[in-house]
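Figure 6 in text form: structure in, sequence out.
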């Protein structure tokens, strides 16, 4: 003890080595930190005093300070270096250059959950909505200004109503672990907006709180979303931290146990993240930090799942080789708390050997970039035929079935936070990232986009009409394919970032959702709402097993039949015809569980035409239904005609039509 008066008012005891971090107890607060090579560790309590941690159990230093409770600021000193507690649950502040101005507080675990229950939406009924806490409400006209851009703002009834109207079931939040802006970004007068630069894996990002209690406000947000049947999925960044590479800021892990927490090779940081360091996720201290963080967010914050950024960085063991089965991925899969929540991998990292799409175990779903690429290529008329789009519509069985996983292992998307918005995808051939201050060098160049004839904004009526139809085609395909659809927040409003496909550093109207749908793009909300409703009401559009083309002995129909417009049988050679720009699929779900219970139409027909001319499409007959009704036409949202089997339906150029068996 340094200050005698502090010792008298707040005496200390040895405390316990677990849990790590700060934990209120009956008589005060217990503090514990992993620091295996430290010679001296001190606890700094501003306004109270400084305490020597004299008790040590293995690598963990610990002390209990009596009379200290929630709200108390604290810091650690390790061999004279002030560091942030990596297990802190309430953190504020950021960086000034390379100097940490982060402060941690003892968090209050008390909260009245008022009977909160997780929605536990089945994977086949899940529609993910990827959103940014701040960007979602900064310009929302019905959210009070004082809570815009916050957890409280996201929980506002007007926001929940909009989400319910869209038909989404889960909100996937861009990183909400407390994060900081990189010095190099701050030097350009910009900020880290997306949040992929974590410093505190157990603390909600404080600037997203409208109050001085981000922990309780986050919990209130989760409770409000759950009350509306919406799940909360967190985008988590356990692959690296904000300490960066050599010369980066010294925040916590580097001072506490550099070689234990970070992966090294030949005396340098091993970097497969592109961010200067890679967490050594298979080590005891790093694995413990990851698992404890995940459990905390499930047990205490009631979240429903996680999307793991650059997951392949976590799948590395030993000298950095990829080995999913021996990595923390397997630990997460077996954990009794975590195996019951949704687990989504971004199945790659920044290395050549980290691309692992289809390589994750049972219980995991994965972002499917081949879906994104094949769907974009088909609708932009890139050539290459229809084999790719067919595989994606049917759930990517070649990718996920070998590991015994169902279509729901594929998270299908055409846009995400990283890349063009949906509107920009049909408005720009090239990226325009000059505002990022890197001379347009950043961001991907291979976007598989098509500007429909004019680069950027235009008044050309024909170009605008084509763009709007193309956007509807892309989002409808995402929602109607087998698998789990994911939408990017703002796409339904026609949001543009003016061709910036890497807007990570802009906290401004450029990245915030527009207050209302952009003029001319209002139709996208209807397309999304109608497609999500079709998906919810008709299990034939969300199969829990892969369609095989097998013929049912009960009704003589294949469970999946590929369709040509003229009705001729599909031939193997058609898959190799690079000139094909039309494909249809007839689905029969007689063997699906939902249909066995009498839920939804037993048959659906989806017709896609990416060509420049309209097509008259012959509907299947024979054992197929006698009548069909149009459920969605991206060229004419008012089209609701009925057709007999064997009749032809007009599918406009660059459009998609869905028909269901009519009663």
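Output sequence:
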């Amino acid at each position: 003890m340094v200050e005698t008066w502090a010792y008298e008012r707040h005496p200390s005891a040895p405390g316990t080595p677990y849990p790590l971090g700060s934990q209120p107890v009956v008589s005060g607060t217990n503090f514990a930190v992993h620091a295996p090579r430290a010679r001296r560790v001190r606890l700094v309590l501003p306004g109270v005093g400084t305490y020597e941690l004299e008790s040590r159990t293995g690598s963990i230093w610990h002390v209990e300070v009596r009379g200290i409770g929630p709200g108390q600021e604290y810091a650690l000193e390790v061999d004279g270096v002030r560091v942030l507690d990596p297990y802190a649950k309430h953190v504020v502040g950021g960086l000034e250059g390379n100097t940490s101005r982060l402060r941690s507080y003892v968090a209050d675990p008390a909260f009245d959950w008022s009977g909160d229950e997780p929605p536990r939406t089945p994977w086949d009924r899940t529609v993910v909505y990827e959103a940014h806490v701040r960007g979602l409400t900064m310009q929302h006209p019905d959210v009070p200004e004082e809570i815009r851009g916050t957890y409280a703002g996201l929980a506002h009834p007007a926001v929940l109503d909009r989400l319910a109207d869209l038909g989404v079931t889960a909100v996937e939040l861009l990183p909400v672990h407390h994060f900081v802006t990189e010095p190099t970004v701050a030097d350009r007068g910009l900020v880290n907006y997306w949040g992929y630069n974590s410093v505190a894996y157990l603390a909600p990002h404080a600037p997203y709180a409208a109050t001085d209690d981000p922990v309780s406000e986050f919990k209130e947000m989760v409770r409000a979303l759950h009350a509306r049947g919406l799940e909360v999925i967190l985008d988590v960044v356990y692959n690296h931290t904000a300490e960066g590479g050599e010369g980066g800021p010294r925040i916590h892990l580097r001072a506490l146990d550099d070689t234990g927490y970070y992966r090294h090779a030949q005396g340098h940081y091993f970097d497969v993240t592109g961010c200067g360091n890679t967490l050594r996720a298979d080590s005891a201290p790093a694995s413990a930090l990851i698992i404890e963080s995940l459990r905390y967010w499930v047990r205490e914050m009631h979240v429903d799942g996680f999307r793991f950024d650059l997951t392949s960085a976590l799948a590395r063991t030993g000298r950095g080789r990829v080995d999913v089965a021996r990595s923390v991925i397997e630990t997460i899969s077996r954990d009794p708390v975590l195996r019951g929540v949704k687990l989504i991998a971004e199945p790659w990292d920044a290395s050549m050997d980290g691309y692992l799409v289809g390589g994750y175990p049972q219980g995991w779903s994965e972002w499917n970039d081949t879906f994104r690429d094949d769907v974009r290529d088909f609708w932009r008329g890139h050539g290459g035929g229809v084999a790719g789009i067919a595989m994606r519509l049917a759930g990517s069985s070649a990718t996920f079935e070998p590991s015994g996983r169902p279509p729901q292992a594929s998270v299908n998307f055409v846009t995400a936070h990283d890349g063009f918005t949906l509107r920009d995808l049909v408005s720009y051939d090239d990226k325009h990232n000059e505002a990022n201050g890197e001379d347009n060098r950043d961001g991907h160049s291979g976007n598989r986009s098509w500007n429909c004839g004019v680069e950027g904004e235009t008044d050309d009526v024909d170009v605008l009409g084509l763009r709007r139809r193309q956007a509807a085609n892309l989002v409808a395909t995402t929602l109607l394919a087998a698998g789990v659809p994911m939408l990017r927040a703002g796409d339904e409003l026609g949001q543009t970032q003016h061709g910036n496909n890497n807007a990570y550093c802009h906290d401004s109207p450029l990245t915030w959702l527009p207050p209302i749908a952009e003029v001319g793009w209002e139709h996208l909300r209807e397309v999304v709402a109608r497609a999500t409703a079709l998906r919810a009401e008709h299990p034939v559009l969300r199969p829990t097993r892969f369609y095989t083309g097998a013929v049912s002995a009960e009704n003589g129909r294949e469970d999946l039949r590929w369709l040509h417009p003229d009705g001729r049988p599909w031939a193997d050679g058609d898959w190799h015809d690079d000139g094909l720009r039309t494909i249809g699929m007839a689905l029969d779900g007689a063997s699906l569980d939902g249909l066995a219970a009498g839920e939804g139409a037993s048959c659906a027909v989806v017709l896609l035409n990416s060509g420049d001319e309209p097509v008259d499409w012959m509907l299947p007959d024979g054992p197929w239904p006698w009548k069909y009704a149009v459920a969605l036409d991206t060229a004419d949202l008012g089209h609701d005609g009925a057709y007999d089997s064997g009749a032809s339906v007009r599918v406009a150029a660059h459009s998609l039509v869905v028909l269901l068996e009519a009663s």
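Caption detail: The chain has a mean pLDDT of 97.
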